[in-house]
Design a protein that fits this description.
By secondary structure, this protein is α+β, with helices and mostly antiparallel strands. It folds into two domains: 204 residues, Multidrug efflux transporter AcrB transmembrane fold (Up-down Bundle); 79 residues, Ribosomal protein S10 (Alpha-Beta Plaits, 2-Layer Sandwich), CATH 3.30.70. The chain contains eleven helices and six strands. It has a four-stranded antiparallel β-sheet. A two-stranded parallel sheet has the order 1-6. The protein is elongated and about 110 Å long. The termini are far apart.
């Protein structure tokens, strides 16, 4: 955890940085592949709409013992096939002791017959078998209301982002990220075959709010960094935006992990213990949407924003000024390096000239000393004895003493 915190500090301070904006074509390609996979499931297999949208009858058998749960799908399916042959039936287990049977619309007599047969088959009272009918108009109403809510939400988001950030391009980038999240989530639902229920629709609307929240956090930092870059002329627009993404990267990951953990727990418990239901349907939508929303806010929204704004005249002028300033700084640095090299050469030449001058002076002194009869050794400057200048033959002979 300390390493992760240190990574966050390095990213925020700029000691370490990932070129997310500069590699935006890679992220676009990756996102296109994900959307293509999602559309393959959506257009090919289609969504698995629940009974609330398609309409039909639902029967629930409660208080089923563990022994009676063996082969519950085959046994319940045979009974419904005898009562209403040719229909599409979905049979699932809810919890430990409930079997849910969803099929097409049954007449009242058919529903009563199915209740009695299911009670006999699973060894429970008829009162423990409930029957209900859901018309398709209810699901259609939910769908229409959801679409209206989505349209209002997108309109308000566009207006707020345009007013807050003073540019419609930030709103466009955020909306593209939102559409990306919805398409991917719905496509995964179709690809895996997860049932779409009213709870799933609520989950879809919820992930829109979460995704736009994460995107606004990143965009707010982008605005702060770019304003500072315009004042100091030290960074280009793309570099300032990339720094903002790096500074909010760890925060976005931490927020997403904290949000995903409880949702994952609900999802695991719901699938393994509770069974299909409203809680599981909502958890599926939240888990997929939060994960892909984090990806889009970091790797799609901000790179797309830079892509949209880098052609503006103000941005191009600013980037050109930053480039010229850096070129001047590089030229000055190179000139200082050349001046230092020349100073070193001149200093070396002066030292060499001084050495030559010293050598010449020493030579001249030695010659003068020799011509004047002086020594250049330790006794330099001392006058020699007069007789030493004459040589051994010119020295006077000593007189012998007579006793």
């Amino acid at each position: 955890m300390s390493r992760f915190s240190r990574l966050g500090n390095d990213l925020y301070s700029g000691a370490r940085s990932y070129d997310i904006v500069g590699r935006r074509m890679f992220w676009y390609l990756l996102s296109a592949v994900l959307i293509a996979v999602s559309l393959t499931g959506l257009l090919g297999r289609g969504l698995n709409f629940g009974i609330e949208f398609s309409g039909g009858s639902e029967l629930r058998v409660s208080q089923v013992s563990a022994q009676q749960m063996e082969d519950y799908e085959q046994r319940a399916g045979d009974i419904i096939e005898e009562v209403a042959p040719g229909g599409t039936t979905t049979i699932t287990q809810i919890g430990d002791s409930t079997v849910r049977v969803q099929t097409g619309e049954l007449e009242s007599s058919e529903a009563e017959t199915a209740r009695g047969d299911l009670a006999d088959e699973f060894g429970v009272d008829v009162a423990d078998v409930t029957s209900s009918f859901v018309g398709p108009s209810w699901g259609e109403t939910v769908t229409n209301r959801a679409l209206i809510a989505l349209a209002v939400f997108l309109a308000l988001v566009t207006l707020v982002l345009t007013l807050y950030f003073h540019t419609w391009k930030m709103a466009v980038a955020a909306l593209v990220a939102l559409i990306h999240d919805v398409l991917f989530t719905v496509g995964i639902y179709a690809l895996i075959g997860i049932e779409v229920s009213p709870a799933s629709v609520i989950g879809f609307l919820t992930i829109l709010g979460y995704s736009i929240y994460d995107t606004i956090v990143v965009f707010d930092k982008v605005r702060e960094n770019t304003e500072h870059a315009f004042e100091t002329k030290r960074q280009t627009f793309g570099e300032a935006a990339n720094q903002a993404v790096n500074q909010t990267l760890v925060r976005s990951i931490n927020t997403s992990v904290v949000a995903l953990l409880p949702v994952a727990v609900i999802l695991v418990v719901g699938v393994t213990l509770i069974g299909p239901g409203t809680l599981v349907d909502l958890a599926w939508a939240l888990f997929i949407g939060i994960a892909v929303g984090t990806f889009s806010s970091i790797f799609i929204a901000t790179p797309l924003l830079v892509h949209l704004r880098e052609g503006e005249l103000t941005i191009r002028r600013h980037d050109a000024q930053v480039t010229k300033r850096r070129a001047r700084q590089d030229a000055r640095a190179a000139q200082r390096g050349r001046d230092l090299d020349e100073d070193d050469v001149e200093e070396g030449s002066d030292e060499a000239d001084g050495a030559l001058v010293g050598a010449d002076a020493t030579t001249a002194t030695t010659s003068a000393s020799r011509s004047e009869g002086t020594s250049t050794g330790p006794a330099q400057g001392r006058q020699l004895h007069p007789y030493a200048q004459r040589g051994p033959r010119n020295q006077p002979k000593r007189k012998r003493r007579t006793r």
